[in-house]
Design goal:
Helix content is 7%, strand content 57%. The protein has 642 residues and is mainly beta. It has a single domain, classed as Maltoporin, Chain A (Beta Barrel). The strands form 6 sheets. It has a 22-stranded antiparallel beta barrel. A 5-stranded mixed β-sheet has the order 1-6-7-4-5, with no helix packed on it. The longest helix has 11 residues, at 2-12. It is globular, with a radius of gyration of 24 Å.
Length: 642
């Protein structure tokens, strides 16, 4: 059965939204954007005033099979919480938690309904995936869970005729090995994109056990893993006005669960199997563009150790319908609705659990003046057993300066968000609380975006200040009866901060190109708790660093390239009372490569050094992370463009 499902996922696969010439022609006077899919428009066209940042695609192109955890660690100011190399890894925006981050795959939320979060170590995106980050609340666009921000994964396709095959083999320290293969084809009416990766590691690195006297050096035990990922896209151009796409993404991961320092090795293991299938039709209807999508996800998580055996399977059925229409030359409207059905079979619930969710939304883009763009969005959700609040969003972009070399835009956004309690929050035994209230949040941000362009130098710099307030924040804590934990609604969590992002490219000559960037986040996220004298004090939420800085530099000369990146993460508290903490740390990576070309063939040899300075650090308390390690890879590519 598994083989048939695997084959079905390979054949059906991973589609993406298609280009529509007519829609682009209608909108080009109103919004200066490249022709994109309807699924992708919400992240830019209807998000005036919000900060939306694309992630450098070079990492995905050079390292097929790299997980989103590694990509976001190296190219964003988001804090990555990892239980070890290859273990569970989550990210969070603006001082929130992993469950406050929505992850969208071509328009569908792929967070686990049981946990309400996404393990980024289980997401090795295909090489043609475009990753973008939307900072701040975006409930009107993305629904439940988009309280701190959203990670958007899209797979744009091209109908330009071509043929391409690429294979790569990588090996490295601690038994690391990765095999990747990608193939794409298009004849102008049919496009197919296939990709496969297999990553494995023994993970038997040496580390300093800081819980033992003298911090002795030990070898990591029970931390090996292997992962297979298969993605397939098929796109059909039915006519100039109609597109049909099907897509699939299958990931199977087996991990030994790395024990924490000082704890006994219980030989814990976890197997995750994630199958995602979807289909989409897009066409011109009623003087607008209509898109219909349907998806089925199956997420299986099996855990066992010396004394525990737990099985979990969730089937998710989702559907969406959207209609976008140009009402006036400067007024664009999109109306839509979606439904979700969760069918969970989880041992910890004591039985099967079903849940239904529905929502309706409207998004409005109004170019009031040539220099002023406004967006007004609203969503209303209906969830079985809950009454989520309506989530409006109002945003604006105001052009302050426009010359041949400089552009300066003022941005402002006010938005509401919500998060429905997860299935585990309500049904886990013992501890689940069916009386929890949905979280409700407000966020405000404003910023400046500057763009510079000259013959040799181009760059973009954006600074954003924000405020965030979340009511009825859900947090698990020890129960009054003891012996287990339970979720409770905190009264309120407040946050504010500053974000800065700057990216530049300098073309010294036709052969020399220098690219670099930096991203910084200053984050204050606090809840009010009593101190030892029973006086209320604001405490920084645990595992929220006040400072996170990421920087990178890439130098290319003909077929040669050198790259380096560094991240700094400040002190993080590891408990609610702020009595214990993890020290700050800096990580540095470096790499070099050479590309050889001959007619339609291309070969690339690459060497990387991770954790160059051999830093001893932890992102989660007592979870060892790898020391300095190296990786070497060779890729071969054949491409034909008529």
């Amino acid at each position: 059965m598994t083989q048939r499902v695997f084959f079905f996922g390979f054949v059906l696969g991973l589609a993406q939204v298609l280009f529509t010439q007519r829609a682009h022609a209608q909108l080009r006077n109103a919004v200066q954007l490249q022709e994109v899919t309807v699924a992708g428009k919400r992240n830019t066209r209807y998000a005036a005033g919000a900060r939306v940042q694309p992630v450098d695609s070079l990492l995905l192109q050079r390292q097929p099979g790299i997980t989103l955890a590694d990509v976001l660690q190296q190219r964003s100011p988001l804090y990555l919480k990892s239980y070890g190399n290859g273990m569970t890894a989550t990210v969070a925006f603006r001082g929130t938690t992993a469950s406050h981050t929505a992850v969208l795959w071509n328009g569908f939320n792929i967070a686990l309904p049981t946990l309400g979060l996404t393990d980024f170590a289980l997401l090795p995106p295909a090489a043609n995936t475009q990753v973008s980050l939307q900072h701040g609340p975006s409930g009107a666009l993305h629904g439940s869970g988009a309280v701190g921000g959203a990670v958007i994964l899209e797979n744009p396709a091209s109908f330009k005729p071509h043929q391409l095959v690429r294979v790569q083999q990588e090996a490295g320290s601690f038994g690391h090995r990765r095999t990747a293969a990608t193939g794409s084809f298009s004849n102008g009416r049919l496009t197919s994109v296939s990709s496969f990766t297999r990553t494995a590691s023994d993970n038997n690195f040496k580390f300093k056990n800081t819980t033992a006297f003298g911090a002795p050096t030990e070898r990591q035990q029970n931390a090996a893993f292997h992962q297979n990922s298969l993605a397939q896209e098929l796109h059909f151009k039915l006519s100039q006005e109609q597109r049909l796409s099907v897509r699939g993404w299958y990931v199977k991961t087996h991990r030994q669960i790395q024990p924490s320092m000082g704890s006994a090795n219980t030989h814990a293991e976890q197997e995750d199997e994630n199958l995602r299938l979807m289909a989409e039709w897009q066409g011109q209807v009623a003087r607008g563009t209509t898109t219909v999508r349907g998806a089925w996800f199956k997420d299986r998580l099996d855990y066992r150790d010396d004394g525990t055996f737990s099985l979990s399977t969730v089937n998710t059925y989702q559907s969406q319908i959207e209609h976008e229409r140009q009402l006036l030359p400067t007024l664009l409207l999109q109306l839509g609705g979606e439904g979700q059905l969760f069918k969970a079979n989880v041992g910890g619930y004591g039985g099967n659990v079903d849940e239904r969710r529905f929502s309706a939304y409207g998004w409005l883009r109004y170019d009031l003046l040539p220099l002023l763009q406004l967006s007004l969005n609203v969503r209303q959700a209906w969830v079985q057993g809950f009454n989520p609040p309506p989530t409006p969003t109002l945003g604006a972009n105001l052009q302050l300066l426009e010359t041949d070399a400089h552009s300066l835009v003022f941005k402002a956004n006010l938005s509401r968000s919500y998060r429905v309690p997860t299935l585990n929050d309500r049904f886990w035994r013992p501890g689940g609380n069916p009386n929890l209230q949905p979280e409700s949040g407000w966020g405000y941000e404003e910023g400046l975006q500057h763009q510079y362009k000259s013959k040799k130098l181009t760059g973009t710099t954006e600074a954003t200040a924000y405020l965030l307030n979340v009511k009825d924040w859900i947090q698990w804590q020890p129960s009054a009866n003891g012996g287990y934990s339970e979720p409770v609604n905190l009264s309120r969590v407040n946050g504010h901060g500053l974000e800065l992002d700057s990216r530049w490219q300098y073309r010294l000559t036709t052969d020399w190109i220098l690219q670099g960037g930096a991203a910084y986040a200053h984050t204050i996220s606090e809840q009010t708790l009593p101190n030892a004298q029973a006086k209320l004090q604001d405490r920084q939420l645990f595992y929220v660093p006040r400072h996170k800085l990421a920087g990178w530099l890439d130098l290319r000369y003909r077929g040669w390239w050198l790259t380096t990146d560094a991240t700094f993460t400040s002190l993080r508290y590891s408990d609610n009372d702020n009595n214990n903490w993890l020290p700050s740390y800096t990580l540095v990576n470096a790499g070099a490569g050479r590309t050889f070309s001959w007619h339609a063939f291309e070969a690339q040899l690459m060497a990387q050094v991770h954790n160059v300075t051999n830093t001893v650090y932890q992102t989660m308390a007592y979870r060892a992370m790898p020391p300095r390690n190296i990786r070497i890879s060779l890729s071969l590519q054949w491409a034909k463009h008529p």
